[in-house]
Every structure is written in C-alpha cells, then in structure tokens.
Amino acid sequence: MLKIGLTGGIGTGKSTVCKLFESLGIKTFDADIIARQLVEPGMPTLNLLENTFGADIIQADGTLHRAKLRELIFSDQIKKKQLEDIMHPLIYAKIAEETENASGHYCVVAVPLLMETQKTDLFDRILVIDCSKEIQLERVIRRNKLSREQVLAIIDSQISREQRLTLADDVIENSSSLSRLAEQIKRLHNSYILLATARTTSA
C-alpha cells in the first residue's frame, strides 16, 4: 500500500482534505486525533504528562488542560522539547500500527509536524497543503478564538512555508473554493491509484 504523508501549517485545511479523501473511499489517519486518544483520562501518557509538567495541566474532570499545556510549551523551549520527546514516538508507533492493518491502494496520514519531526522517510509521498499566512491567520483566529499574536507564534514555531514546499512531492493549493479543492484531490486520487498499481505490478 502506498502511504501518503499529508502535512501543512496550522489552518491550511488538513482536516477538510482528509474528509475529501475519505469521500473517495480512502482510509485516512490523523496524528492530532491519535495524540488526543493517547492523553484521554486513564491513559498512561496522561499520567506521564502530569508527572512531567505538574498537576496544573489536569482539569477538575481529569482531562488534559490543553490551553495550560500550550502556554507552558510556547514560553519554554525546554518544556516544548520534553513534550515532543514524550508524544512523538508514541504517535508514530500508533500510526505504524494502524497503517499496517489498512487496506486499499493507498492511505493518507495527516501529520502537522511531519517535516519538523524529520519523519518524511516513513511515507512514499509527501503531500503539502498550502495557503498564504494571512489566510492561515484568518482561519485559525475564527476557528480557535485565539489572538493574532498567538496564531503568529504557532506559525513561527513551525517550519517555513518555503521549506515545506521545497520538500513536497505533491502540493494542494487551498486558498479558494471547496469545489476547487475537491478537483485537486480527485486528480491526486487518480494519480496515487496509478502509482500504487504500478508498484504492485512491478513487485
């Protein structure tokens, strides 16, 4: 099976793209969803985070206080690295487990920090979703109710748009309509099926 690593900066539209691939019958996986599952109440990972960052990151109902943790890591590079060292190996191990059992010509795995974690070699092709920084800002401010400064800090903590595009095998431009986005995905879908079929035939 062909494994497509899907990535892009915050607010570029990774979730929407995954839904469009799913509408074509393609299995998708989302690193953010996997990360949330790993820190559900009762999970060992949540206990590890509490021991590392303190009880303040746990809310009264036992769930992770994401806003509090976000504040900690964006103001302290050491804590950010601690979080990455805990979460990234667990997330990639779960991705490997789930994609191993997937069926079909290809699957899509959405990983926001794919290039930052230097794990592009785990995938056969890297698909980047791209849009301007201003569109990112507008979408994230509206969706997450964050300030412009907070969103800029998140964008600046990620690999640059130019670096991301340089490392891409395929690019989706997501600055206009949903129909335009769907057209691009349909073309990629057909291309990936051809690639997967050719690889199977030559194997």
Overview of this structure, please?
The protein is of the alpha/beta class and 203 residues long. The protein has two domains: 1-26 and 119-198, 3-Layer(aba) Sandwich (Rossmann fold); 27-103, Rossmann fold (3-Layer(aba) Sandwich). Helix content is 56%, strand content 12%. It has nine helices and five strands, in the order βαβααααββαααβα. The chain has helices at residues 14-23, 31-38, 44-53, 66-74, 77-100, 133-144, 148-157, 161-166, 178-202, and strands spanning 2-7, 27-30, 106-110, 125-130, 170-173. Helix 2 (31-38) crosses helix 5 and helix 6 (133-144) crosses helix 7 (148-157). The radius of gyration is 18 Å and the shape is globular. The model has no long low-confidence stretch (mean pLDDT 92).
Query: How far apart are the termini?
Result: 12 Å
Low-confidence stretches: none
Major beta sheet summary? 5 strands, parallel
- From the spread of the alpha carbons, the general shape counts as globular
CATH T-level fold name of the largest domain: Rossmann fold
Q: What's the total helix number?
A: 9
